[in-house]
Structure prediction request, 664 residues.
Amino acid sequence: MKKLLFIYIILIGLFVVYVYHYQTNETASNDWEDHELQGSVEETYVMITFQTGIDYWKRALKGFEDAAEVLNVSVEYRGATQYDINEEIMALEQVIARNPAGIAISTMDPEAMNPTINKAVEAGIPVVMFDANAPDSKAYAFIGTDNFEAGATAAHKMAELLDEKGEVGIITHPYQLNHQERTDGFHATIEKKYPEMTVVEIKDGRGDQLISKEVSEELLSEYPNLKGIFASEANGGVGVGKAVIDQNKAGQLHIISFDTDKGTLDLIKEGVISATMAQGTREMGYWSLQFLFHLQHNVVSDVNGETTLPPYVDTGIKIVTEENVDDYYAIE
Amino acid sequence: MKKLLFIYIILIGLFVVYVYHYQTNETASNDWEDHELQGSVEETYVMITFQTGIDYWKRALKGFEDAAEVLNVSVEYRGATQYDINEEIMALEQVIARNPAGIAISTMDPEAMNPTINKAVEAGIPVVMFDANAPDSKAYAFIGTDNFEAGATAAHKMAELLDEKGEVGIITHPYQLNHQERTDGFHATIEKKYPEMTVVEIKDGRGDQLISKEVSEELLSEYPNLKGIFASEANGGVGVGKAVIDQNKAGQLHIISFDTDKGTLDLIKEGVISATMAQGTREMGYWSLQFLFHLQHNVVSDVNGETTLPPYVDTGIKIVTEENVDDYYAIE
Prediction:
């Protein structure tokens, strides 16, 4: 009987602990609900790009997945395998049909894609653009690089490498807005801030490695005192690098390129390219998902109850040189 | 004895439920930890401004508090009660001494404040700037209005009000960068996009209501065909409004102003000011705290383990007219 009483007391004790625990847990659950930054795994957010196979998107997708993990939601990656706008539009149409919790899009052709982007927004699906914007669409925000600023950063780095003196050239892709902006930012910064430096010529490399190599060779023979070349995109940078190697001028002039594909990183390791501009692609993915989540859950509502988001986030630029190049080979 | 057995069984049952519940709760707790967007109420984030008493900051502080609620952390509001940089620096010094979880600062004088801002960063405290930046400081990010874009938005609205035709003037504050940018954005947009519109003159209202009224009166008599005036800040806008009322011209020309203080909103209600530009002050506060939290908890780390944040967030502009003016009186 005493033994029974003992067990009895223990069980009652446990019951009290249970009730107490249950209540604490209730409070926790309430906090959890109050705490609006918590979704469910059934909630699926989709990232859509073109040329889905290229390395460039890996870090953006990683950021998108990182945000999904902290917000406890699911993600999918869709898009056009080729550089084909119709394929990208079709991918978006299919995603809209499944009514996801949100869509982050990088478009290769805003004009062509605007109607489908607007269709998604009109269907009540949160949409943000990242990396390549569709400024005339109804998407709620754009998260990407300020290309003028990125060009200015490249100019400051070039000035540092050249002790603020000497002739420099630019290889760019003049019919694409982001390249124009990078070129303008570089050019304007050299002109305004570095009186002993001159931009001698801007050549069209058409975003192609071979053509960029050819025009770089012209540049090198036309301007024997050239001290530096800025390439506004990765193919151009590799082309400039190959021209410099062919003419045995590696190390004699400074090349600054853009993005962090393997070809560019290899040339940095070899000492041919001095620096490259790494875009905040991971941040693009991370804050895209954060913004979509905030729209889906109406976390930040305005005076009239509408969700309001900052329309533009500049994800910035980091300078990659021999010193930190190894960090960029590994896509964690 | 049967009764005792019954109680026994119930208690064992409850014990089983308890153990089960405890395990579920364990899982939840783990999720909670994984789910990194959850702070503790002991974690205090501080907002610092100048002229702490003015209405302007209320919405920024509301956004800061909203973010604190969803992230489960605490906030404080400090700063200079006057328009006094020494008082603001002292407030920041006092906050640094208490080693808070993060600081969001709007500075009235970046040059004077940079050393103290850098001291906070060097002490390992996350710091972001909002509304009024200190671009040469070591703060991690700036969250505020793109003033050039805001001026452009005002220009588009003016063009809409005037059917894209006619003479317009500008009253601004030419020695303050944000006002220069607003003026440039307005001016450039009218020139580029609206060939039948002309900016006839830009006058200095010195951010003062009376001076702005005087220069507006000059503008009105010098240009009898004037169809619109853009004021780049709130005191100027009220000054323009009073000039127009005095000359019995209310309703005959369109005034576009900036910000949403009571004086401006009242003149919109009276039909004297046609529109004003509302800054995303609440978004500034909300994303400032989000960014500080991300820095404090190292939520988004880069290839080298460093926390990376977008360096700039444009919180955008909304147009306030008679239709939605009531929403802006109430600071929720």
